[in-house]
Structures are given as C-alpha cells and as structure tokens.
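Same chain as my last thread, 151 residues:
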Amino acid sequence: MVEIVKLREHSESASIAAEWFHHKWGIPKEAYIESIEECINNKKAIPQWYLVMENNTILGGLGVIENDFHNRKDLTPNICAAYVEEEYRCQGIAGKMLNFVCMDMKEKGIDTLYLVTDHTSFYERYNWKFLCMVQGDGEPDMTRMYIHKEM
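reply #2:
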C-alpha cells in the first residue's frame, strides 16, 4: 500500500530521507539533514519534508522550503526536490504527492505555494499555473515559476 509520510511525524526516517534526497539531487546530505531536523524539531510550518513509501521502499518525495535557490525571495514557500523513482512514474504518484502537500500546507495556514521547474505542461495537470520566469542562483538561464493557490 502506497503511503505519504510526513517526516515531522516519522523522525526515524530522517537519515534515510536525507540520503535519498542527496542521491537524487546532489545537494549535500548535511543540508537535507539540517532542514529535515528543523522540520521535526521546530514545529514551524516551513520547512516540511515528505516521502512516498510502499513496503519500506521510497517511491518519491519532496520538500517545502522558504526559497528553492532563485532570485524571487518574495515568492515563498517553495516546493523543492520533487522526485518520483523512474519505475514508479506515470502512476499518479506525483499528483497525489503534490495534492497531499498542498492540503497539508493549507492545514498549517499556507494556501499559496510556488515551485521552479524546467517542465512544461506537467504541473498544469495538478492545478498549478505558470507565473513567471525567475533567475536560479548561479544559473545562466531563466527557470519557470509556478503557483498553486488552495481555495
């Protein structure tokens, strides 16, 4: 059975999650550990981290952080590190994950989320709207910024 796990409620998975995100995105594991520990210990709305699990196997995951390394610091908070393992893609996992996180954030009083991506037409399927182009930190090219507002 596929389950979406809130890491704030499953601190025992913090190290495994940090290693998994590090492997997928190449960001130092320590950065993930620090952010996940803040999620677990500070009880603030941001940051938050989630895993999609089935039988102790990570199928996917994502985080919610203040800024996903771009110049528009006013567009916050941001979905980050969204990833679904290749063999589990095209099964609706990304959509379930995005919807779950949007609802969880709404319960924490946050009804607007942003994300940066190079994808076109993917996020629109899940009620995200293209907002503008933003400059990624240290990136030569502009990146697409999307917005999702929960009603």
